[in-house]
Amino acid sequence: MTDEKKQPTREEQRKDMINSLESNLKNDFYTNILGSNTLRNEDAFYGAFGKQVGEGQYSASMKSEYASKLYQETMEGEEKARENLGIADLPDVPYPTNYQITKYVLSILNESVNGLPLGNLEQILGKTAKGAKLEIPDALKEYEIQREELIEKAHEEGKKPQEIAGMLDKDSEGALQMYKHLVYEALKRNAASKLLEDHRYDDINAQAKKVSEAFKAKKGIKDTKEKD
């Protein structure tokens, strides 16, 4: 007699989904791409130095082990699709491009913000972007819970998307979408600011190292420090 695998409850599935979405927002590679892309893309706000840091960190991220993993997974997926469909042509080389990796990462982060309840997003901001005080009304958090239940019931009843949209409160929907947008903007700014802070002196440190090495070479000074 074999034991049937217990199916997760709706609440357990919801909890797993929330944990997965939250982990996306905490993924170092994703946040580095988010921050570096923001610095490169919004140089009018962050200035020339911000763009310089962004370019350096974006390049470093794309050469990382995690990026290599994404490249490999994408290539394997393309090759599998090619075999299944019997396509004679090969995928473009090199494939995927940095653009496609960035698009993939930013899409996941966008989906995570849009998929998480406002209460969870508020907690994440409280731990990461601590200066962002969005003051999300409790009534809106409650509406979001009721909204999910309403949509699920409407789907079960076979209602069309336009019918479901007509059942939702327009004012609450507008506020909900605006808060999601503000949360994403706060996460972008936090990721960009962290990169700026972590790499604020990279150029000065690099120049100082060159001066030090040149001086030691001229004086015949050997570095006695143990190398890691």
Give the tally of β-strands. 0
Q: What is the residue-averaged pLDDT? A: 90
Radius of gyration, in angstroms, nearest whole number: 24 Å
Overall number of domains: 1
What is the helix/strand order? HHHHHHHHHH
**Percent of residues in beta strands:** under 5%
How far apart the termini lie comes to 58 Å
Main beta-sheet strand count, sense and barrel state? none
> What ranges have pLDDT less than 50 throughout 5 or more consecutive residues?
none
Give the number of helices.
10
Please give the share of residues in helix: over 70%
3D shape: extended
Q: What class, by secondary structure content?
A: mainly alpha
Describe this structure in words.
There is one protein chain. It is built from ten helices and no strands. The protein has one domain (20-197). Helix 6 runs parallel beside helix 9. The protein is mainly α and 228 residues long.
Brief rundown of the structure:
The protein has helices at 10-26, 28-41, 43-62, 65-85, 98-115, 118-127, 138-156, 161-167, 170-198, 202-219. With 228 residues, it is mainly α. Helix 5 crosses helix 9 (170-198).
Features:
single chain; 228 residues; mainly alpha; 10 helices; 76% helix
List strands and helices in order, with pairings.
Elements: H1 10-26, H2 28-41, H3 43-62, H4 65-85, H5 98-115, H6 118-127, H7 138-156, H8 161-167, H9 170-198, H10 202-219
Helix pairs in contact: 1-5, 2-3, 2-5, 2-9, 5-9, 6-9
